Amino acid sequence: MNSSAHRPSFGFSSLRNIITWFLILVLLIYSLYSSKFILNKPDNPDCSVPSSPHLSAKDNLDKDDVVTSPANTSSDQEPARKTNLLAAPFPERQDTTLQLKHVVFGIAASSSLWESRKEYIKLWWRPNETRGVVWLDSKVNVSKEEEGLLPELRISQDTSSFKYTHRQGKRSALRISRVVSETLRMGMEDYYYIGSSSESHIQNIFFSYAMAYGGGGFAISYPLAKELETMQDRCIQRYPGLYGSDDRIQACMAELGVPLTKETGFHQYDVYGNLLGLLGAHPVTPLVSLHHLDVVDPIFPGLDRVESLRRLFESAEHDTASIAQQSFCYDKDRYWSISVSWGYVVQIMRGVISPRELEMPTRTFLNWYKRADYTAYAFNTRPVTRHPCQKPFLFYLSSSPRRDCCRVLPSSRQTVMYLWSVAAERVK
User: Fold this and answer.
1) If you ran DSSP here, which 8-state letter would residue 84 be given?
2) Rounded to whole angstroms, what are the CA distances from 116 to 56, 88, 244?
3) Rounded Cα gap, residues 421 and 428, in angstroms
């Protein structure tokens, strides 16, 4: 007889009953878990991330700043100050027009070059109107006659505690980059970082297209200056390998989440030679700054650099907003194209040249990298014609009696152009 017939075995029906009860138990647990969400409404039905007008990378940096802030900083004062910056609106002014009194100039200068550079400042500084400070690395002598013609002079703080590891740069970049915070400690609702890039494409690659170049200058809004002052010293400690002051400013702007607002009126002028091509085709935007004036040729032939700027400022006194801005017209009878850079030069060219071509600067200048060709510029240019009949006739400004000079008068000399001022005639 086969013994296997009497061996006890686990029946199939018993296994089926266990699986059935297991599934019933799972369904019961799932029903109880789901009923919690059906019967109880969530506190926040909107699962999206709450938005805030001030939620940005800057908040994370602020949290880090509170942790790494010096020990002598009061912990209860720091959050209050940041709350005021972010939440408290600025008091409304009756006159919302931006005026010169609303701008504070922070100027970084070297004491070794002060004697020559101060002459440039005298041309545009308006005593009792303009506000600002010149920050020097050491004391300089100032005569009594110059005290009322120049901004206040101050000595920058010691920057020896800051790291600087760039092999080709100078430590003065640390001092210059702190001009904003040092100026603010003496005394728009949005954050603005305004400036322009270099004219050299290679320069912008080496540094950054997102950086406002310090030679041409930059402008930042007051709330941004206050926020920068609270974190700049810690920020520049994180970038010891950068070259200059302007890239350190841009690094701090990146940490605050503030992009560069480009304004073409700021001019770094990383070029050599004659600025005729650039100033003669200046875009329709206010001329804010000029840099490297000691490197390029004087802008007016026959005059030195200071005299050239003084002549340019004679026109600026009549119409500051329009200085050097280009406009053009055509003489159909003579088949001429005429380009006018207000307050600077009038160019008359044979033939009809399209506005698209006229607004391109002619290459009367050389790139900052002298071996580079025309492809190394950060903007479109056109070549200087070699044909004598295609070269423009140039009429540089000698005097500017009024802004409204529109009518050309006959002249017995081919090298002199006379303009009749209708407004000046009415004044008489």
Assistant:
1) H
2) 44, 44, 22
3) 11
* CB-based contact 190:123 (threshold 8 Å): no
Which pLDDT value is given to residue 36?
55
Question: What would the two tokens of residue 226 be?
Answer: 């206050």
Complete edge-to-edge strand list for the sheet that includes strand 193-195: 219-220, 193-195, 260-262
Q: Which residues pair with 405 in a beta bridge?
A: 421
In Å, the largest CA–CA distance within the chain is: 144
User: Does 328 score more than 50 pLDDT?
Assistant: yes
Element of type H or E holding 418: strand 418-421
* 3-state SS assignment for residue 71: coil
Topology adopted by domain 100-262? Spore Coat Polysaccharide Biosynthesis Protein SpsA; Chain A (3.90.550)
Q: Phi and psi for 164 in degrees, rounded to 5?
A: -145, 115
User: Cα–Cα distance between 296 and 366 in angstroms, integer?
Assistant: 10
Give me the residue spans of the domains in the chain.
100-262, 272-427
Q: Which whole-number Å values give the CA distances from 251 to 82, 149, 215, in the listed order?
A: 21, 35, 17
Q: What are phi and psi of 377, to 5 degrees?
A: -90, 155
What distance in Å separates the CA atoms of residue 212 and residue 198, rounded to the nearest whole number? 8
Residue-wise DSSP of 221-287: -HHHHHHHHHHHHHHHHT-TT--SSHHHHHHHHHHHT--EEE-TT-----EEE--HHHHTTB-SS--
Full-prediction pTM beyond 0.90? no
For 7-36, the pLDDT digits (tens) are: 444 455 666 777 777 778 777 777 766 665
- CA distance linking residue 374 with residue 379, whole number of Å: 9
Neighbours of 377 (CB within 10 A): 21
- 3-class secondary-structure state, position 37: helix
